[in-house]
Structure formats: C-alpha cells, structure tokens
Amino acid sequence: MPNNTLLGALWMLGAVASFACMQIAGRELSGGHDAFSVLLFRSLVGLALITPIAIAFGGIKNVTTRRPIGHCVRNCIHFIGQFGWFYGIAFLPMADVTALTSSTPLFGVALAIIFMGELLSLRRLAIILVGFLGVLIVVRPGVVPLELATGVTVLGAFCYAVSIIMVKALTRTEPPLRIVFFMMLLQLIFALACTKLQIALPSEEEWPFVILVGIGGLTAHYSMARSVQLADASVVMPVNFLQLPLMALAGFAIYGEHIDPYTLGGGALILAATYLNITSAKIR
Fold this sequence. Notes:
The chain is mainly α. It has one domain (3-282). It has helices spanning 3-29, 35-56, 68-91, 94-101, 104-116, 122-139, 148-170, 176-195, 207-230, 233-236, 243-255, 261-279. The termini are close together. 54% of the residues are buried. The mean pLDDT is 85.
C-alpha cells in the first residue's frame, strides 16, 4: 500500500475518533440546547484554539485567503450537514445516527468520481456496496418507521459529503490549518445568525462537554483535511464506516442503548468493507 494511502487512512481514523467524542458531547448538550447553540459552542471553542495555532505554524497567511468564495460556499453546505447531524443526535439512538451518516462515504465516492476525476474500480465499487449493505441491515428501511430526524440526518450526510469533496479541492492551494480556521470563523458567524444571539449559557456541569465538542470538532476536521490531502477521497472516506460499530458500543456503554443482532451483523460487514477498501489501494 502506498505510504500516502496508509497515512491518509490513519488520519481519517483520527477523524472518526474525534467525531465520536463530538457526538457524545453533542448528546450531553442536546438536553438543554438546540442544534444551533451546540454548533455555536463548537465553533467558538474551536476558533479560540485554532487561531493561535494557525498563526504560530504559518503566520498571518494562515488566517487570510485568496479563495473566500470557496470557503464560504463549502462552509454553508457543511453547516447544513452539521445541523443535520446534531439534530439527529438529539432525537435518535447513537447507533442509528451513525448508521445514517455512514451514507456519507457513498455520496462522497460518487461525487469524487464525478467532480474530482477519481477512478473507481469494480473491486472498490463492490466493497462500497458491501458497506452500504451493512448500513441497510442496521437501518432496515421499510421495516422500521422513518422519522423527520431520519430524513434530516440523511440530508446532513449528503451535505457533509459535498463539503469533504470541496475540502479536497481547497487543499490544492489551502493548507489544512487555514481550512479549519475559516471553517470555525464562518460557522461561528452562521451559528450566531441562526440563534439570533438568544443563547442559554452552559451550566457548570455542561462546560466540559462544551470544551469537548470544540476540541473534537477541531481535531476531526483537521484530520479529515489532512486525510483527503494525502489520498484519494474514494479510498479514505469509507473509513468513516467504522463510526457505526464504535458508536453502537458507546451508546450501549454510556446510555444503555440496546445493540440488536442487526447492528452487530451490519457492523461486521461495515468493518470488513472498510478494511478491504483500504487494502485494495495496492491492487489498483
């Protein structure tokens, strides 16, 4: 396997772990705050952390850009995706949210082929379909009634896939720290506008989760930007499938959410698809 592919997969694995932390923190905050407020907390903490880091490792050029329109469009789409994710976290079991957002790599691979000119072999297509089958086994559409939160979460997954492809395009001229800085800055502005400055301050017990959601968002998106900078999006994005078994276990351990055989069976297929997709890079 090429070194860049392995490194890209490892960076995406770091993003998966960071998103898991952010999802747990988001669930804890959703009891007293709506999705827009959680997005505001995430962006505020993230901006406070990324600004000195970006300047220290690149000077003022890391907080300026010649591609403002690209950053604005990407972050508008990503903001919708993040809203869909946090909305789902508030109303659905963690395993269900993760199963639905596992459609992101499938959307992302299709978009990478159409807009980025990446190649898709029959082997990789088959592997991704196996991963999608695992998601379907968990969700069981047509058997389990669909809810509004389900549709909003899937919309969020699609928007998130679009934003990842746009990050891939931005990395041609923009370093990852700059991309994350403008994400935190612009999405803080969007969140302030959506909350209309009517924000309930976190309680003393909630502050650790506010900090965790901010740090998780920062490390997740930096890791994701590094990942797609190093390797094809169609290779590394399916690593996101690992979130499903991980969050199913977290939901069981932390919230006592039931893990049924469908989740276990689907999760096994997803794990297998993730491993095969990464190792297939050396067969291309």
